[in-house]
Write a structure and sequence with these properties.
The protein is built from seven helices and 13 strands. By secondary structure, it is α+β, with helices and mostly antiparallel strands. The strands form two sheets. Strands 1, 2, 5, 6, 7, 8, 9, 10, 11, 12 and 13 form an eleven-stranded mixed β-sheet that branches. Strands 3-4 form a two-stranded antiparallel ribbon. It starts with a helix and ends in a 6-residue tail after the last helix.
Length: 231
Amino acid sequence: MKKLMIILLGCLPMMLQAQNAKFCKSYSDFVANRWTPVESLTEGRTNQMCQVKFEDDQFKFKTGDKEADEILKKEVLVVEYMGHLYVNCRNLRCNDIVLDVTNYAQAYRYQGNKLCVVAHWINGGALLASVAGDVVFIASPLPVAVPAGVAADVIWFNMDKFNSYRCYYLDKDANEKGKTDVVRINDEFVEKVLANDQALLKRYNAIEKKNARQSASIILPVLKEKGLIKG
């Protein structure tokens, strides 16, 4: 019984965070820190905690209420859940190309009020992929910390599953058609970011293969090392 109580107490902070899941419908709201509790969407119609579910290669938010879930699917841009950010890719466009995602991808704050969205890259589009194997409910973020003891000339994870991820930069509201343009973080983007850090830029450019160089497994640690994202 004592062991059970310890387990339950350990889960309490996680449960409270899940109940306090919140969202922004627009980028402007995100910048202004205008968050709305997810539970306000249910208006007492359900007592189920908001959960993020991995299904069909996508992140989905479920509240147990059909009306609330429809709003989360179609009208919300950013959800903060258990301290992690998720961006709705439904209306994101990169060079006028639809990202082949109908739900959410994990994201990071970029310089505080911008967003770095991480999505799986397939055939010029993007399709979300799991980084947690067969786990259905996912609470942990994509890690970006460089492991201790890593060689000085290595700045990325030795994880094959990150090689097919790409990072997208989001810093604006949707247009009149409800679509939001995002920029893929590529070589040109990184060169501008590292213009005053030639040592790090040299390490980045030393990665010969372009696809590998522009993968999230490389980009995320670079952005973290420059202090542009945290996590």
